[in-house]
């Protein structure tokens, strides 16, 4: 079909209107690439599919189309050595659950839309993958039960944090009169106390920072320095263990 005829038929305008109903980037891309068909058999098949789709909509049902947003990016990173994060797995889980819903929905509509439903039935079940993601990731975070090592490391982290908190409470109480405020701060990932500048030498420890005005000095007390180093190493172990899960 030549450009003049397509212009007279307002073909591009029809595509724009159709594009407004697309619910995924794949659908929009497909519409953008549409050209008039010339094969009579293909045209009749497309018309039959359109009739089936209209019959589904006429029933008033909402077709559970899965969201594809982000899935193409995740798929493109497979076998590249990229370390997937928890949110990547959650996006995959949402997508797989949506695909399962669509498969079940179309299976129940075979009598209304036999051709369209056959496309959905070709989608593979992924129960094992879904159950593994659900087992290992909870609320967007790698769960303690993902591996024995991860569980062990996180227990040590919890114990170490509790020891640091108890010591910090004792230190804050001991030096309350020289603190700028009764509040624990964090500098460079390490807990510090805000000491009035003129008294900071009364606290044994390392100065990690100071306020813009220079009136407050942030000191890491010597009593918790070793504990904080241990905590940092444990958190490194935790990150590596989470990474091992992501690789698998």
Question: Termini separation (Å)?
Answer: 51 Å
Silhouette: elongated
- CATH class division of the largest domain: Mainly Alpha
**CATH fold topology of the largest domain:** MutS, DNA mismatch repair protein, Chain A, domain 3
Structural class: alpha+beta
CATH architecture of the largest domain: Orthogonal Bundle
Helix content: 55-70%
Beta-strand percent range: 5-15%
Total DSSP helices: 10
Largest sheet properties: 4 strands, antiparallel
Low-confidence stretches: none
Secondary-structure element order, N to C: HHHHHHHHEEHEEEEH
Domain tally: 2
Radius of gyration: 30 Å
Mean pLDDT: 86
How many strands appear in the DSSP assignment? 6
Strand order of the largest sheet: 3-4-6-5
Can you describe this structure in just a few lines?
This is Recombination inhibitory protein MutS2. With 248 residues, this protein is of the alpha+beta class.
Model description:
This protein has helices at 3-8, 11-19, 25-32, 40-58, 71-76, 86-107, 114-121, 127-136, 148-174, 222-247, and strands at residues 137-138, 141-142, 185-187, 190-196, 205-210, 216-221. It has 248 residues and is α+β, with helices and mostly antiparallel strands. It folds into two domains: 64-142, no CATH class; 146-247, MutS, DNA mismatch repair protein, Chain A, domain 3 (Orthogonal Bundle). A four-stranded antiparallel beta sheet has the order 3-4-6-5. A two-stranded antiparallel sheet has the order 1-2. Strand 1 (137-138) and strand 2 form a beta hairpin. The longest helix is centred in the middle third of the chain and has 27 residues, at 148-174. The protein is elongated, with a radius of gyration of 30 Å. The chain starts with a helix and ends with a helix.
């Amino acid at each position: 079909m030549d450009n003049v005829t397509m212009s007279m038929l307002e073909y591009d305008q029809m595509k724009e209107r159709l594009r407004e109903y697309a619910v995924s980037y794949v659908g929009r891309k497909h519409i953008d690439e549409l050209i008039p068909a010339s094969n009579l058999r293909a045209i009749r098949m497309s018309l039959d599919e359109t009739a089936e789709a209209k019959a589904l909509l006429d029933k008033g049902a909402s077709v559970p189309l899965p969201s594809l947003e982000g899935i193409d990016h995740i798929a493109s990173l497979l076998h590249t050595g990229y370390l997937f994060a928890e949110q990547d797995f959650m996006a995959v889980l949402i997508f797989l659950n949506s695909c399962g819903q669509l498969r079940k929905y179309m299976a129940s509509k075979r009598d209304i839309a036999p051709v369209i439903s056959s496309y959905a039935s070709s989608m593979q079940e992924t129960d094992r993958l879904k159950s593994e993601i659900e087992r290992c990731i909870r609320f967007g975070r790698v769960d303690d039960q993902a591996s024995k090592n991860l569980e062990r490391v996180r227990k040590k982290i919890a114990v170490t944090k509790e020891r640091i908190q108890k010591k910090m409470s004792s230190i804050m109480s001991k030096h309350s009169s020289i603190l700028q405020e009764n509040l624990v701060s964090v500098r460079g990932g390490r807990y510090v106390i805000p000491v009035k500048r003129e008294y900071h030498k009364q606290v044994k420890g390392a100065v990690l920072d100071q306020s813009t005005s220079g009136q407050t000095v942030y000191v890491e007390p010597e009593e918790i320095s070793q504990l904080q180093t241990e905590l940092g190493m444990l958190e490194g172990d935790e990150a590596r263990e989470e990474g091992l899960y992501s690789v698998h």
